[in-house]
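During the reporting period the student researcher (J.K.) took over the structure-prediction task from the postdoctoral fellow and processed the backlog of single-chain submissions. One of the processed entries is reproduced below for the supervisory committee.
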Amino acid sequence: MITDPPRVDGFELRALSEADAAGLRDLFSDPEVCAFMDIEPLQTEFEALDIIDWAEAQAAQGLGVRWGIRRPGDPRLIGTVGFNRIERSRGRWGEIAYDLARDQWGRGVMSTILPAVTARGFTDFGLLRLEAMVTVGNARSCALLERMGFHLEGVLARRGWWKDRAWDQMVFARLAD
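J.K. obtained the following structure tokens:
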């Protein structure tokens, strides 16, 4: 099971649990937060629980992990970060993923957190490669990944189908030093 989050000054990270259902619903009810994601904005805590159940199952099987992000002393969930997938049987790579409440955009939250998360992937998880899938049009995410040392490897045309349309996705990657 993968649950222990990295330590990051100024933030508290912990594995998502049922106690996060209301906070996750609030985070993912914002259409702008979900604009480039493969989900519709959430309406209910039950929808949030489905996401939490998925994250808990991934962690229990050692296939991934998703940590909730909070500021110390503030119970509000302001985002999530982690690995949607960790592959160890046919390679040593992981897919990093993150999201953040709109009022936290541009405040350096992910620039502070992602170095610790990528380090966890390379050192503690023993991964040789990290990938991030970014929906075309998500310029903020592209800029963040480039600042974190990720490089655009290519575009996968029509890789996803959600919100009644096909979506192209960009593959960003970073290799272990």
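The committee noted the following: The mean pLDDT is 94.
J.K. will present the remaining backlog at the next meeting.
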